[in-house]
Amino acid sequence: MSATISPGRILDVGCGDKKATGAVGIDCRVLDGVDLVHDLDQTPWPLPDSSFDLILCSHVIEHTADIPAFLREVHRVGAPGARVRIETPHFSSLDSWTDPSHRHHLSLRSFNFFTEDGYLHQGRIFRVERVGLTFRRSALGSRLAAFFYRRSRYSYERNLAFALPAMNIEAELVVVK
Question: pTM surpassing 0.85?
Answer without folding.
Answer: yes
